[in-house]
Amino acid sequence: MITTAFTILILPLLALASPQLYGPPPPPANDPTPTSASVAVAAAAPSAPPDSPGQMNVDVGFQETFTFHPSNFSAPNGTTITFFFPADLQHTVVEGDPTNPCAPLAGGFDSSLTASSQFTITVTDDTRPVYFFCKVLTHCPAGMVGVINENKGNVTFAQYQAAAMALGNTQPSVDQNNAPITGGIGAQATAGPSSDIASAAPSPTSGGSGTSGATRVAVTGFLGLLVVVMSAMLAL
After folding, report:
1. Could you tell me how far CA 154 lies from the centroid of its own chain?
2. Which of 37, 73, 112, 115 could lock onto 202 through a cystine, CB 3.0 to 4.6 A?
3. Lowest mean pLDDT among 24-28, 114-118, 157-161, 185-189
4. Looking at the predicted structure, is the pLDDT value of residue 53 above 90?
5. Separation CA 121–CA 83 (nearest Å)
6. How far, in whole angstroms, is CA 205 from its chain's centroid?
7. Is the model more confident about 170 or about 34?
8. In the chain, what's the furthest Cα-to-Cα distance?
9. 42 in helix, strand or coil?
10. Is the pLDDT of residue 194 over 90?
């Protein structure tokens, strides 16, 4: 009799204390609500900032098109040029042969396939033009080419781009999965692409699994009440 009465009294107390002891249930696995970390990463996807003295910046896949922006510009010796890759599609920046559009220049740089990253080259010989292109299939024939110091060469940007677009489906076969290639002629890369996305740890929220001061107080109160009830039952 005592056991039955005790059970009847204690069950509501356990139900009341359960959320305090264990916290709220976890969100569904398919909850579409973005976390603070995912929002931070999405916001950190790189895009080219304004140029500064000695530094030029180029958007790769500008506005979701097969273009570099800018794609035709001048840069003196010592200028660093950083290519900013988008997050939604992989591209490359490869030094090209002006006489063989969409084909790599022997000894030239190659960023390799990358996204959400930056690739930097430095102009080392501004007396010669530096042609570049994206080697991803169909991108170069779509016009995704560029040139630095066009006025120092015999092939203009317009001519280089027109020759690339004339290739259509006959684009030269190139390795799509090679590692980054440093070096270069007229401009040099000293490292492969690097990500500029800083990792962000999500901050604790009220729905987290940590034990708060309020939870500890609730648990302590529940245990005290449990002792009182047990004492009353034993006294019967």
Report:
1. 38
2. 37
3. 24-28
4. yes
5. 8
6. 25
7. 170
8. 106
9. helix
10. yes
- Residue 233 belongs to some domain of the structure: no
Res. 222: pLDDT tops 70:
no
The domain tally of the chain equals 1
Pairing of strands 187-188, 118-123: antiparallel
Residue 214 host element (H or E): helix 213-235
Q: Does any domain span residue 35?
A: no
Q: What does residue 76 show for φ and ψ, rounded to 5 degrees?
A: -75, 170
| Residue 60 resides in a domain | yes
The single residue listed with the structure tokens 């180029």 is: 58
- Averaged over 137-165, what is the pLDDT? 97
Give 157-165's long-range contacts (Cβ < 8 A, gap of 24+): 157/71, 157/72, 160/96, 160/98, 160/101, 160/131, 161/71, 163/101, 164/101, 164/102, 164/133, 164/140, 165/141
Amino acid 47: pLDDT: 73
Neighbours of 19 (CB within 10 A): 12
Looking at the domain assignment, is residue 222 inside a domain? no
Q: What would the two tokens of residue 115 be?
A: 């996204």
The CATH number given to whatever domain includes residue 83 is: 2.60.40.420
d(CA 80, CA 126): 12
Give residue 73's domain range.
45-188
For the beta carbon of residue 78, count every other beta carbon within 10 angstroms: 10
